[in-house]
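re: ur question from yesterday

yeah so i grabbed the chain u mentioned. its 248 aa long if i counted rite. heres the sequnce exactly as i have it in my notes:
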Amino acid sequence: MKITARTRIAELAEGPKGLMDVLRSSGLYRDGDDPDLMLGELCWTFGFNPAILLMMLESANVDELPPPVDPAQYEAMPLDALLDHIERTHHQYLRDNSPRITALAKAVADEHPGDELLAALSDEVASITAELDAHLGHEEEALFPMVRDLVAQRAVAPTRCGGSVGGPIACMENEHDMSARTLQKMRDLTDGYRAPEGASDAWRALMADLVRFDQDLREHIFKEDEVLFPRALDAQRGATPAPAAATG
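ran it thru and got these structure tokens back, copy pasting raw so excuse formatting
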């Protein structure tokens, strides 16, 4: 949903559940307060900058969707096998398809130069695919080798995020949140990836590609956030500390 300083609290309550959670956690609103207040009015009452509240709310402005997969089979996998699965299934899908989908989104937008929604969609697709390319590299160069070291009971090689898996996991979770927000923007721009009546074959093909892209990325994020990351943190907590170097 679109949120501005003129959005009323009652309207906010009709959006994703996380919006009201953020508003309550801000300390500006409690259950039972006037729901007809606009967010701007609420902020001014407390001397709070409305722009800051809008930024806080935007992080939760994502539709709640059911889990994209059953986690049970991934929870039962050996941890290193789960890493292999994620790389082979989701990382490879993105590397194989992101350049083509990005080019197709631009081509469809170029075919309709007056369509602002298609232009915005092309920009969002280009942004998320570039961010994901860097994200995959970070996972494969930092987090995944650290987890494989834990599985093999080797000393974990430190990365630029430190010597604990918690560092890169925090980065990954933040990037996942950004990707989820971009997916939501893409759904909003396309009415859930629906091509309008009379749309070109290329436009319809783009919508079909984005449905698959959206599903794959949500599965990817879910497997990491809900299965891989908690298990990696558990493995780190259970690891035997490396012996200190002898001093003479």
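noticed a couple things. The chain has two domains: 9-58, 72-238. also The two ends are 65 Å apart (CA to CA).
anyway ttyl
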